[in-house]
Design brief:
This protein has four helices and seven strands; from the N terminus they run βαβαβββαββα. It folds into two domains: 120 residues, Small protein B (Small Protein B, Chain: A, Beta Barrel); 29 residues. The relative contact order is 0.23. It has 159 residues and is of the alpha+beta class. A seven-stranded antiparallel sheet has the order 1-6-7-2-5-4-3. The N and C termini lie far apart (46 Å). Helix content is 32%, strand content 33%.
Length: 159
């Protein structure tokens, strides 16, 4: 049975990631969570805007992801900005260490979602874009928008 990812329930997306970074490679990682954090995620609350991942020894950690406290949990809520361990195969971690060793590469989260009842994180190996790269991306996006607009206008004028 092929898994096409159609059973995903997206919780949070890092929208600035594709603007700020050039995505070179992606992989899926499990996330170690505590009970109230899972409840908070099921309610659709999380923020990946300032998050990144780092490798320490043979483990990968997600840093800066904000999962707000679950109100009904009372005092059992962990710190919303705590480091969370990511679950990857050792071979994937070794491969990531080799890639991150290259100058200017970093690990950033793209998306947090539930897949088969488990919290997963789409992690990307990325290189930061320079200011002129960002301007070029904006120019390209606006030119594509203008082309679509003119094609729609042309289609309306024929009818």
């Amino acid at each position: 049975m092929a898994d096409d990812g159609s059973d995903r329930k997206v919780i949070a997306t890092n929208r600035r990631a594709r603007y700020e970074y050039e995505i070179l490679d992606t992989l899926e990682a499990g996330v170690v969570l505590q009970g109230p954090e899972v409840k908070s995620l099921r309610a659709g609350k999380a923020n990946l805007a300032e998050a990144y991942a780092t490798i320490r020894g043979r483990e990968v950690f997600l840093i800066g992801a904000h999962i707000p406290p679950y109100p009904q949990a009372g005092r059992g809520n962990p710190d919303p900005l705590r480091e969370r361990k990511l679950l990857l195969h050792r071979s994937e971690i070794v491969r990531l260490q080799g890639r991150i060793g290259e100058r200017g590469l970093t690990l950033i989260p793209l998306q947090l979602y539930f897949k088969g009842g488990r919290a997963k994180l789409m992690l990307a190996v990325a290189r930061g874009k320079r200011r002129y790269d960002k301007r070029q991306a904006i120019r390209q996006r606006e030119s594509e928008r203008e082309i679509r607009r003119s094609l729609r206008a042309r289609g309306r004028s024929r009818s």
